[in-house]
């Protein structure tokens, strides 16, 4: 009735108890330490079966967390730039000032007065133009195909 053979074990690493967290920690596009952003124009350009699945997942998510007092989020496309490469407007955006020091060198300071010792290697997040195409008023547009090879 019972076999003396051991139960075969699954090969490979054990299943994670935090699969979404694991994936998001590896993801590069639209993810930082606190948020995962999905560009609406790309989501609405997904194949129809994907859109159905995504709408069901989001509906379940909102049903589960509908009791939370959600703020209004403002998402701004941004990129990392070297502090030394920023213009005055970008410096103001990141809360930084630049002055000529006593030795004649430029001194970069944060809003609270802290000096930034190496502005050439100090990277900050600044807003940029959105590289993702917006959806036209006529509805989702398919993503353009790659141009044909030159030969």
TrEMBL record:
Region (Disordered): 1-20, 130-151
Organism: Saccharopolyspora cebuensis
Pro residues bias locations: 139-151
Name of the featured protein: Uncharacterized protein
């Amino acid at each position: 009735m019972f076999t003396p053979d051991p139960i075969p074990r699954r090969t490979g690493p054990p299943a994670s108890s935090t699969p979404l967290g694991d994936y998001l920690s590896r993801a590069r596009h639209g993810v930082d330490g606190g948020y995962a952003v999905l560009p609406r124009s790309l989501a609405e350009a997904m194949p129809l079966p994907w859109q159905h699945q995504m709408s069901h997942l989001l509906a379940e998510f909102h049903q589960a967390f509908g009791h939370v007092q959600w703020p209004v989020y403002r998402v701004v496309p941004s990129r990392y730039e070297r502090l030394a490469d920023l213009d005055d407007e970008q410096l103001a955006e990141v809360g930084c000032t630049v002055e000529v020091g006593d030795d004649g060198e430029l001194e970069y300071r944060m809003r609270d007065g802290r000096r930034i010792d190496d502005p050439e290697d100090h990277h900050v997040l600044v807003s940029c133009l959105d590289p993702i195409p917006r959806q036209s008023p006529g509805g989702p547009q398919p993503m353009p195909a790659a141009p044909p090879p030159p030969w």
